[in-house]
Amino acid sequence: MAASSWESPDLTGDRRQLLEYQADQIETILQTHRAPGRVIGGTVTPGWIRYQVVPALGTKVASIVKLSEEIALRLGAGSVRISRHGPNVHVEVPRKDAQTVRLLQLCQHLPEIPKQSAILGLDESGIPLLLRLPSPEVAHALISGTTGSGKTALAQTMALSLAMHNRLGEVQMILIDPKGEGFGPLNGLPHLLRPAVREIHQAIFLLGELVEEMIRRDRENISEPRVVVFIDEVADLIEQGGNAMSRLLTRLTQRGRSAGIHIIACTQKPLAASIGSITRSNFPVRLVGSVTSADDAKIAAGIAGTGAEKLMGRGDFLLVAKGRVTRFQVAYASPGEIRRVVARMQEVNRRSRRWLAEETPFTLADTGTDGLQTGKGKSPSTSKRSRLKAFFGTQLKLLK
Most exposed of 134, 230, 303, 351 (fewest Cβ within 10 Å)? Predict the structure, then answer.
């Protein structure tokens, strides 16, 4: 599940040969097109392999970025994503044997999670990535991506992780699901203020109540418990709800954070024409999955040059916040797993964490690091918890 350094002693011979071959091919393409650079290492993640390239003196980064299609063709990949990070250029190549990051297994091996924080997944270094909702830099999040990108799965992961690690007095939730397909497995969570709303007129009435609650909280200067509103296909919701829906969402996204009300909205069409003014400045956090073009990527991320059009789909996402871009793999929970967690939370004391019990043993995603020794003199038979700690230990990347 964690990322591994290219220098890991546990990499198999076949995998090391693949890394060396692809590195040689990248250098060949760069040299052929007069944009020389040297591959100095890389990282194997569950979904892709990231190569670190040092451009030769005089080589423009833009010249390397323009060669993404040539590199993909040479490596037999559907696409590659190229971006600059500090003094290096990262060339990210999708794995043919991409692994899934499992939410429940990840939760079992995390330290105490900060209050009112949603789990997103693993970042490009194998570090768990969390979103702390009360932060002024977070407030609301817009999840964008085409069909199959994993945006609904990401919203489910965020909702489930909030419920698993927060008391009812800390977080409560509302689900708005116009198509009735996105949030079905989450129905029954103790944290839900009401069952998932599907009808447009019910959604308008509910958001109107939330605006009144926001005004009351502002007047009384309170913000607890946090109310998180998850909306699937927000563009369709606004299209059907008209000006009334648009006005309510705009008010909530403009003033909701200070009152403890947060909007997590999913959309395939993050256009100003379809969502209106709420996308321009009221969603400081953008979670961007695969999109069809660079223009769509710019609109979804709010900034240009993210390379979101090169993402692979199926949970391959970018976190865009405060002008920084972080690639991550969504931690996935299947509908069956979600329903089992919901059932356990209804049956047992939520604080016991017994809903996390798994029938199958925990296994690391195949990144070539299974069995990596955790320290000098330790054998490969070290416990899986300790081996996982060798990868990311108690470190968390918390956006706040």
Answer: 351
